[in-house]
Amino acid sequence: MSKSIIVVEDELSIRIGIQHTLTAEGYTVEAFEDADSALRFMQPGGFDLLITDMRLPGMSGLELLSKVEELHPETGTMLITAFPEIDLAVKAMRHGAFDFLCKPFSNEGLLIAVERYFNYRDLKQENARLKSGEDLEGMIGGQAMQPAFDRIRAVADACTPVLILGPSGTGKELVASALHNLSHRADKPFIKINCSALPEHLLESELFGHEKGAFTGAHRRRIGKFEVANGGTFFFDEIGDMPLSLQAKLLRVLEDGEITRVGENKPIKVAVRTIFATAKDLDAALEEGTFREDLYYRINVVPINLPPLKERGDDIVKLMQHFLHLYAGRHNKQEVSISSDAQKALLAYDYPGNIRELRNIIERSVLLAQDGVVRVGHLPQRVRGEEQPVSVCKAKDNFTLEEGVQQYERERIVGALEKTGNRKQLAADMLGISRKVLWKKMKDLGISG
């Protein structure tokens, strides 16, 4: 896409010369005699770069610079000045101008200055993109995640094993996926296995494969995941739960680069990049003797630590908004927003289940929010900070189901009214229903208003 430039210069010959020079280099250029005309042209949308003379009829170049900085902060600015005005131009640069051109200037000098600005802008945008994690599988993260993001980019294309550490639900599989997709193996297989999901005898067959007749039920040859992953990446989730006997076999594969199918003696060469993840404390597992020390040092070459969600500050709000948008679209709803009280409750919660728990809470809330607004009442009781109510229904086994439901609703509504000082709208928000529904239920249940 062509870069767009606006030129504001009252001297016709200079204005035409600048426009011709920049257009010949492939820039899209609009030129104006005065600042007001340029501003009117820019109103529908900003331009990439503004080049303006300091002295103009009507509004000055400095005033134009201030206006553009206010209305179009994404637009870069560059000033043209006569030699005696250099001090003024330097002052303008301190207020946001990128550079200045001193009359008379050559076409080459103009092009060099413009190219220097766009190189600066592109580098700035790239830094912002890297800090935001846009290149990391859409991972969302601020300052607390920067060490992890930096480590991912640094080792993505290496052959070295990576160990991802962090509590359950912090996004370890996303990190593994980013490591694969940022590498030269991105077009090769990305194979995953959960070491805690299969019993030992099945896990060995899954990893290495087996020959026909290798054990009871082995009616045909099976290719293991190591062979399937050949040339690509193999992600071992919950490596801390792998049985000790298999740890020894895995270590041999990592050391020798070859596997042997169950029931076969002939080794098979494999070239696989391995990534490991665990929520367990492997140092404690070493002391307990449940994890091999030699394997630990083999896989812990490059560790990546993921912090729990409660330590990630503003990331909670970003993730909240991301999941709201995601699940509103997935469940065919119009854009869903979140009330300030619900947001406060979500920010005050500790999230023992981390991002996975937040994601599930938001999906549930989106489904329950019939009017497009997630309210406190749509959140789980643990998030609202409420204890599970002890209903009188537990003490009376002779209640019908309908009577029990009515009694429960009566308790919840009365409790909400008491907590909000009988303010109906606040009580409705707390219960996750509209004011109209609250009034109807109060009438049906005989609750005085």
TrEMBL record:
Question: Which Gene3D superfamilies does this one have?
Answer: 1.10.8.60, 3.40.50.2300, Homeodomain-like, P-loop containing nucleotide triphosphate hydrolases
Q: Where 4-aspartylphosphate occurs along the chain?
A: D53
- Tell me the Gene Ontology biological-process terms attached to this UniProt entry: phosphorelay signal transduction system; regulation of DNA-templated transcription
Sigma-54 factor interaction domain location, by residue? 143-367
Q: Name one GO molecular function term.
A: sequence-specific DNA binding
Response regulatory domain boundaries: 4-118
Give UniProt keywords alphabetically: ATP-binding, DNA-binding, Nucleotide-binding, Phosphoprotein, Transcription, Transcription regulation, Two-component regulatory system
Q: InterPro entries in the record, alphabetically?
A: AAA+_ATPase, AAA_lid_NorR, CheY-like_superfamily, Homeodomain-like_sf, HTH_Fis, P-loop_NTPase, Sig_transdc_resp-reg_receiver, Sigma_54_int
Say which domain of life the source belongs to.
Bacteria
Which Pfam families does this chain map to?
Answer: AAA_lid_14 (PF25601), HTH_8 (PF02954), Response_reg (PF00072), Sigma54_activat (PF00158)
Supply the PROSITE patterns for this chain. Answer: RESPONSE_REGULATORY, SIGMA54_INTERACT_2, SIGMA54_INTERACT_3, SIGMA54_INTERACT_4
Q: What is this protein called?
A: Nitrogen regulation protein NR(I)
Q: State the organism named in the record.
A: Pseudodesulfovibrio profundus
Gene (name only): ntrC
